[in-house]
Design goal:
By secondary structure, the chain is mainly β. The protein is built from 1 helix and 6 strands. It has one domain. Helices cover 14% and strands 75% of the residues. Keywords: Membrane, Transmembrane, Transmembrane helix.
Length: 161
């Protein structure tokens, strides 16, 4: 019978952490890989796990099945179900559901989005529920894409001469 590996880390600067159950407090980490990852006041470059819970954390890339952010920042978030609570995520990609609670996001792509007093630059979803303010709807995104594409094409024609 295998014992479940559990790691509890506090006030350290680490490179790579791997384990089944990982609890990190007030530390910086380059890479975290685990089954259940809990972080409080942690700066991490990459976090990968089945279930990730982050409170007052910052990460560049977060990937997992179930992701929960509370008062945190994650540049790119990729998961099956993602909850962003009082947090900021410039890019959030979820296979099934993203829940935003008083949060800000750049691009949100998910099967369904539930929101409460949140804002996003652009949302791509089959179903959106709740109070979500978006800067771009699909029509304005297509119009901006057409203008940027036209200007790009014109500049590349002029550059060839």
């Amino acid at each position: 019978m295998m014992e479940k590996e559990e790691k509890d880390i506090r006030d350290r600067d680490l490179e790579i952490i791997e384990g089944e159950f990982i609890n990190i407090n007030q530390s910086t980490v380059r890479n975290v890989e685990g089954g259940h990852v809990e972080m409080q006041q942690v700066g991490a470059l990459s976090v990968d796990g089945e279930k990730i819970e982050a409170t007052q954390c910052a990460s560049a890339l977060t990937h997992g099945d179930e992701i929960f952010f509370n008062q945190s920042i994650s540049t790119v978030t990729i998961g099956n179900n993602t909850t962003v609570n009082y947090s900021f995520s410039p890019v959030s990609l979820s296979r099934y559901e993203t829940t935003l609670n008083r949060s800000a996001a750049g691009l949100v792509a998910a099967g369904s989005v539930k929101a409460d007093n949140s804002v996003a630059l652009m949302v791509l979803a089959n179903k959106v529920e709740g109070e979500l303010t978006t800067l771009l709807d699909w029509k304005s995104a297509v119009a901006i894409g057409a203008v940027v594409g036209g200007v790009w094409g014109l500049l590349s024609l002029l550059r060839r001469k």
